[in-house]
Write a structure and sequence with these properties.
- The complex is a heterodimer of chains A (about 950) and B (about 120).
- Chain A is an all-alpha fold and about 950 residues long.
- In chain A, about 70% of the residues lie in helices and about 0% in strands.
- In chain A, a hairpin with a 4-residue loop joins strand 1 and strand 2.
- Chain A has helices spanning about 10-35, 40-55, 55-60, 85-110, 115-135, 140-160, 165-195, 200-205, 205-210, 215-230, 235-240, 245-255, 260-270, 275-300, 305-325, 325-360, 375-390, 395-405, 415-440, 455-470, 480-490, 505-525, 525-535, 540-565, 570-590, 605-620, 625-645, 650-670, 680-705, 715-725, 730-740, 740-760, 785-810, 820-835, 850-870, 890-910, 950-955, and strands at about 65-75, 80-85.
- In chain A, helix 7 (about 165-195) runs antiparallel to helix 10 (about 215-230) and helix 16 (about 325-360) runs antiparallel to helix 20.
- The N and C termini of chain A lie far apart (about 85 Å).
- Chain B is mainly α and about 120 residues long.
- Chain B is built from 4 helices and no strands.
- In chain B, helix 1 (about 1-20) packs antiparallel against helix 2 (about 25-45) and helix 2 (about 25-45) runs antiparallel to helix 3 (about 65-90).
- The termini of chain B are far apart.
- Classes of the chains: A mainly alpha (about 950), B mainly alpha (about 120).
- The interface between A and B is large, with 125 and 95 residues.
- Chain A: It is a multi-pass membrane protein.
């Protein structure tokens, strides 16, 4: 035998959990190979894990505990620690014991269907998480396993298919809400106590009770337990969960998962036992559920529904006695938890047997099965008698002690009597519906005489459990060591009693007698009782929940509706309105700004006047080409403004960008009508009002927040450090490629992404037809090129521009230039060539995708090379040979940026410039008044190809409609 | 002062245009807003110092703040990238709704018959 003492062998606990996980993972593949025999394999596996844990039982029974602990989240002091003590041992016995029975029951119930492999896997996974829940010695770990059982339960209910959608969702949401409550309680406890170690927390009763968080913690823990253990008024998810197949109902929703709430309350009893509020809450909710559940069970006709309501009732009794919290009450709760798992799982399995054999679970349809299925009838009767608390069953013994515990309730002077009376009421109802199950299925005339007894293998698991319920009543001494050891773990003060089968003519025996007598009367007068009960209208919690759920979803839909609109204006207007509000708030709230220095120069004003004219023209024009031209003018004026502000690189960049923007815009505009329509008056008014408001806000903000300080510290640093640190004299460029290379890398990647986006939007092959309509005319219109002059000009200029581009790139570190500007010049060269030769397609070395790739590789590679030398990413370094001609790593990085920008440009020219002849020529159809000549100041000399068909008059006769490729 | 007025002008024009129905106008408005923000960022560096931030050229005490310039330089190129992308969206035929109608809420189905007419041309 193993050495005895506190400690034992903690590895066993980890091995057990790992074995369960392994079994769960192996279940589906094993099922494919072995079919339904898998159930027996898993039953053997469960038994093996049980045997593994059993090796530690001597340690536990001697009053010790087996522990193991691994670091998990050391910064939070959360560890993966497991602990096997008496209480954990009792629940392990239930989880694995009932698990063996259910797994051995599954094969005959489920058959060979392929989907069942998943069910086996989930059931085993659930068993593993349930083991983890009761073994967890850390609150966070306990919470994690708690939620995992919820998720397993959800998936197992959902295996029932379409009918399970709503019930599974209810079960998930209710129990997950409880899980969140538990999480909050865990966080609060760790704040109060300073650790999440379960044993330490439980030992700090005084500290927890003294803290202001005591009642929130207690309330949240109780709420979590009530959701998991299906207490009123949240019980509705449990009857709904009965859509799951019977093994799932028997295992999760009768024997184990719903007991997680009971386990949690037992575990936290040392913290709260004896506190009147805690006792009152648990006793009230528990007894309400006990009586209410039993009452609802007596109304049901479906056998599984009866059992589900019965579970609510029995769990209520358990919670009530835990609330009482005396040694006897707690010991009784332990014993009854075990007894309930045994008889309730048995009854579920038997209902499954009846369902399979007869095709029905409704006691109004079933009748007289005792003649054709005598063994089934006997076994069912045994389990039902245990549930009803009839001697000599185990259920009788546990109920006796439940009564004794309830009588000890001492919240007030009369609470013991009331609790006892309610316990008797619930138990009498339990007796009545227990008899109803047996009589409903097996009594009365036999309507299906050609049925026969199910196979021994099908019945064996249930029969075994039922027999255990009979034997363990008189043989209660067999259970005593385990249960009293478990109770010792949670009893706060006082000695744990030993159970005995018969303990004299005590009040409990009288209460049992009353229970059986009243229950018998209820059963004998069952028709009258049934009629009376059916008249009672009860609120349907499930439907209420569903309505609330739907209402919440509807609310979400309503809130999100504006964001799902495809109306661009709406999306844009909202942030703009927010800007106006922000400006107004800022005007009121911001105060005490430093004074503004003198910032204006005389030359600023004429530039500003030009800007005003250009903006006004852009806004008002109805000619598309004029709009593009005027926005180019705005850009040029802004460039001049930048030049005045001392930003020469910026001005240069903007000039080049304006040229390129105009070219690209014209390429797109070829396909659009040349005239813009006037917007409707209301839209113009709203847009103008909002424009003025946002403009004023922006101007005020600029006035308020700029020009009120000297050179920034960062700016001063760059001016001072640029040359010594980098060797470059163009400070702006050194910032781009040296100081803040990472930003630049990100920005260049954005451009690369834009290039890829163009490829996706417009097709990766130039000129690929994007509309399904082939050209209408028999012969396509001749391709328009730039004419001889432009071609010759391109011939001369393009090589020069290419050289200039390279030069700007090379000198960028010291003089105005750099990767962005150089690439823009290079892009203009490409554009000129493309336009002059009517978009002949790209040479191989200018393919967009390879350019993007090369640029990215170069920029990232330069950074990574620094990292390889052990310095931070993108640190500049010298290159051995090239350094002699002034080429360092910043230039290589800049080259990467260059390639990415160039990639975007060539992509734009190539894809947007692709011959539009593949679709109807745009700009050709508009009515006469729309066919204005292109503005003479057409930007950048771009040539607009003219494919206009000669049928002008016919087209003019047609009503003006939408046109152009879609 | 001039910077503030310039920002206000550009923002007002840009906002007016992005609230239009015609997508080309929206793109043009977007360009204006880009200019506005760039002017704002450069003026945040201080408009009293306007020397070139080139070492060894001009009075070092008058050199403009280089950091906003670096920001704006990349911002201009990125704005260009996005503008091109927007133009491509217009061409690829996003919600190509460039006509103003009296009732703007007309559902999509009523706009459908445009294909056959195009075929007749």
């Amino acid at each position: 035998m193993l050495p005895v003492g506190d400690g034992g062998d903690g590895v066993i606990l980890v091995l057990s959990l790992a074995a369960m996980l392994l079994l769960a993972a192996a279940a589906p593949p094993v099922h494919r190979r072995l079919g339904r025999t898998t159930g027996y394999v898993l039953a053997a596996g469960f038994a093996g894990v049980g045997g593994l844990l059993a090796t530690q039982v001597p340690t536990v029974l001697d009053g010790g505990a087996v522990t193991t602990s691994w670091q998990w989240m050391p910064s939070l002091q959360v560890s993966f620690s497991l602990r096997l003590d008496g209480l954990a041992g009792l629940f392990c016995l239930i989880v694995l014991g009932v698990g063996v029975l259910v797994m051995a029951y599954c094969p005959r119930y489920m058959g060979d269907s392929g989907r069942n492999g998943v069910v086996y896997g989930l059931l085993t996974l659930f068993a593993g998480t349930m083991l983890g829940l009761v073994l967890a010695a850390d609150l966070v770990l306990l919470y994690v396993f708690w939620e995992l059982t919820t998720i397993c339960s959800f998936f197992l209910i959902a295996t029932a298919g379409q009918v399970a959608v709503r019930p599974a969702r209810r079960a998930l949401l209710v129990t997950a809400a409880g899980g969140l409550a538990l999480l909050v309680a865990v966080v609060m406890l760790s704040v109060v106590v300073g650790t999440t170690d379960l044993a330490t927390v439980l030992a700090e009763r005084e500290r927890v009770l003294a803290s202001p968080l005591a009642w929130p913690i207690g309330g949240l823990i109780a709420f979590a337990a009530f959701t998991k253990s299906a207490q009123l008024p949240l019980h509705f998810w449990l009857p709904g969960a009965m859509v799951a197949m019977t093994p799932v109902s028997a295992y999760l929703h009768a024997a184990t998962m719903v007991k997680a709430g009971i386990y949690l309350l037992m575990r936290t009893t040392p913290l709260f036992a004896g506190q009147p509020a805690w006792s009152a809450l648990l006793i009230t909710v528990g007894l309400a559920s006990a009586v209410g559940g039993a009452f609802m069970a007596l109304r049901e006709h479906d056998l599984k529904a009866i059992l589900a309501q019965s579970t609510v009732s029995q769990l209520g009794l358990l919670i009530a006695v835990i609330g009482v919290g005396t040694p006897v009450a707690l010991a009784a709760a332990m014993l009854h938890t075990f007894a309930h798992a045994l008889f309730k799982a048995t009854l579920f399995m038997l209902v499954g047997v009846i369902d399979r054999e007869t095709g029905s679970r409704d006691i109004r349809e079933l009748s007289g099965l005792r003649r054709v299925m005598p063994v089934t009838a006997t076994v069912t009767a045994l389990a039902a008698l245990s549930m009803a608390g009839v001697p000599p069953m185990l259920g009788f013994v546990s109920k006796e002690y439940l009564f004794q515990g309830l009588l000890e309730a001492d919240v007030t002077s009369w609470s013991g009597v009331v609790a006892g009376a309610l316990g008797v009421t619930a138990s009498a109802l339990t007796f009545a519906y227990g008899m109803r199950i047996v009589h409903g299925a097996f009594g009365g005339p036999t309507r299906q005489p050609d049925l026969y007894e199910p196979s021994a293998a099908f019945l064996a698991p249930a029969a075994l459990a039922a027999l255990a319920g009979v034997v363990l009543g008189p043989g209660i001494d067999l259970l005593n060591p385990m249960v009293t050891r478990a109770a010792a773990d949670v009893v706060y003060a006082g000695a744990v009693p030993e159970f005995s089968f018969w303990h004299g003519l005590s009040p409990e025996v009288v209460m049992s007698a009353i229970t059986i007598a009243v229950g018998t009367v209820l059963f004998l007068r069952r028709d009258a009782v049934d009629r009376a009960l059916q008249r009672v209208r009860l609120p349907d919690g499930g439907a209420l929940f569903d309505r609330t759920h739907d209402a919440v979803l509807a609310l979400g839909t309503a809130v999100g509706r504006p964001d799902r609109s495809t109306d661009l204006t709406g999306h844009l207007a909202r942030p703009l309105i927010a800007l106006v509000v922000l400006g107004a708030v800022g005007t009121v709230a911001v105060d005490g700004l430093p004074s503004r220095g003198p910032t204006d120069r005389l030359l600023d004003w004429p530039v500003l006047a030009l800007l005003a004219l250009a903006v006004l023209g852009t806004v008002l024009t109805r000619s598309l080409l004029a709009a593009v031209g005027l926005v180019g003018v705005v850009g040029l004026v802004v460039a001049v403004w930048f030049l005045l502000a001392g930003a020469v690189d910026v001005a240069l960049t903007l000039l080049l960008v304006e040229v390129l923007t105009a070219v690209v815009a014209v390429l797109v505009l070829r396909r659009l009508p040349t005239r813009l329509r006037r917007a409707a008056a209301p839209r113009r008014a709203v847009a103008a009002a909002l424009g003025v408001a946002v403009g004023v806000a922006a101007a005020v903000a600029t006035l308020a927040l700029t020009g009120r300080r000297d050179l920034s510290g960062t700016g001063g640093y760059f001016l001072d450090a640029a040359e010594p640190e980098t060797g470059g004299t163009n400070v702006v460029n050194t910032i781009l490629v040296d100081f803040r290379g990472m930003d630049t890398l990100g920005e260049a990647i954005v451009l690369g992404a834009a290039a890829v986006g163009l490829l996706v939007l417009l097709g990766s092959e130039p000129g690929a037809p994007r509309s399904g309509t082939p050209p209408a005319g028999p012969t396509p219109a001749p391709r328009a090129d730039g004419g001889l002059v432009l071609q010759v000009a391109a011939q001369v200029l393009v090589p020069g521009m290419a050289v200039l581009s390279a030069y700007l790139l090379w000198r960028g570190h010291d003089e105005p230039g750099g990767g962005f500007i150089a690439a823009l010049v290079g892009g203009i060269a490409v554009g000129l060539h493309q336009v002059a030769h009517a978009f002949p397609g790209l040479p191989r070395y200018l393919r967009p995708a390879p350019l993007v790739g090369a640029g990215l590789l170069l920029a990232l590679g330069t950074g990574a090379a620094a990292a390889l030398q052990g310095r931070p990413f993108l640190t500049p370094f010298d290159i051995p040979v090239l350094g002699a001609v002034g080429i360092g790593s910043p230039l290589l990085f800049d080259l990467g940026v260059y390639l990415l920008v160039l990639a975007l440009l060539v992509t734009a020219f190539d894809r947007l410039g692709a011959d539009p002849a593949g679709s109807a020529p745009a700009g050709s159809a508009p009515a006469a008044e729309d066919a204005a000549p292109p503005a003479p100041s057409g930007p950048a000399g771009a040539q607009v190809p003219d494919h206009r068909p000669p049928a002008g008059r016919a087209a003019a006769a047609a009503p003006p409609t939408r046109r152009g490729p879609r | 002062m001039t910077a503030a007025i310039a920002v206000g002008l550009l923002v007002a024009g840009g906002v007016y245009l992005v609230l239009q129905r015609n997508l080309i106008r929206v793109v043009v408005g977007f360009v204006l807003l880009g200019h506005a923000v760039n002017v704002l960022v450069v003026s945040a560096g201080g408009m009293d110092r306007r020397g070139l931030p080139l070492i060894g050229q001009g009075d070092p005490g008058q050199a403009a703040d280089p950091l906003p310039q670096a920001f704006v330089l990349t911002a201009i190129v990125i704005t260009f990238g996005i503008t091109v992308h927007l133009l491509a969206l217009v061409q690829a035929g996003g919600p190509a709704d460039d006509e103003e109608r009296p009732d703007e809420e007309r559902p999509d189905e009523e706009r459908a018959p445009s294909g056959p007419e195009r075929g007749q041309r």
